[in-house]
Design a protein that fits this description.
Rossmann fold
Length: about 190
């Protein structure tokens, strides 16, 4: 049996719902909803998790770390250790300020790029996990503090764009799970933003 771990990154708690930093949660929740999966709290992993048992004996574990963004790796380290997962079977779904809102980019290696959640994953898992990066940029107004921006809620126009694109995000994530990284990269990284 092969197992993949798909982790949406975000912050737990009602005050963080629908903030830019919780876009990873939003997308992973949308895919779980589409598959009619039910979340459960698992204190031992410091996460909410659910499982998708696919045909052919492949299981996908979905997780939402409840550690707060900057400690996401602690939760995912516990999960990947429990399931004995190699780092390349882990997919992290998260917001990325360097990508324009509405776009998705896939990558496998690189620095944290100033993203504390990714830095925590690198610390606890090492490099080599797949990064499903959801654009939330550019920062506006430019002089706004980075923390205030990522923890801020989307404007009504941005929220509408996210809702319009949610199906695209979910189908991109499904493509990644079903076809693998290189096929998904070819499709998602080349999409015309218009």
């Amino acid at each position: 049996m092969s197992i993949s771990l798909v982790a949406g990154l975000g912050n737990p708690g009602r005050e963080y719902e629908n903030t830019r930093h919780n876009l990873g949660f939003i997308v992973v929740e949308a895919l779980a909803r589409k598959l009619s999966l039910t979340w459960k709290k698992q204190a031992s992993f410091e996460a909410e998790t659910t499982r998708w048992d696919r045909a052919g004996g492949h299981t996908v574990v979905f997780a939402k770390p409840q550690t707060f963004m900057n400690e996401s790796g602690r939760s995912l380290g516990k999960l990947s250790g429990f399931y004995k997962l190699p780092v390349d079977s882990v997919i992290a779904v998260y917001d990325d300020l360097t990508i324009d809102l509405g776009l998705v980019k896939l990558s496998v290696t690189g620095s944290a790029g100033g993203h504390n959640g990714v830095a925590s994953l690198l610390e606890h898992l090492g490099d080599g996990f797949t990064r499903f990066r959801l654009g939330i940029g550019p920062k506006h107004p430019p002089q706004m503090d980075l923390k205030d921006f990522v923890l801020g809620k989307f404007t009504p126009e941005q929220q509408a764009l996210i809702e319009t694109n949610l199906e695209k995000y979910v189908s991109g994530l499904t493509l990644l799970l079903e076809q693998g990284v290189s096929r998904a990269m070819n499709t998602l990284n080349r999409r015309d933003p218009k």
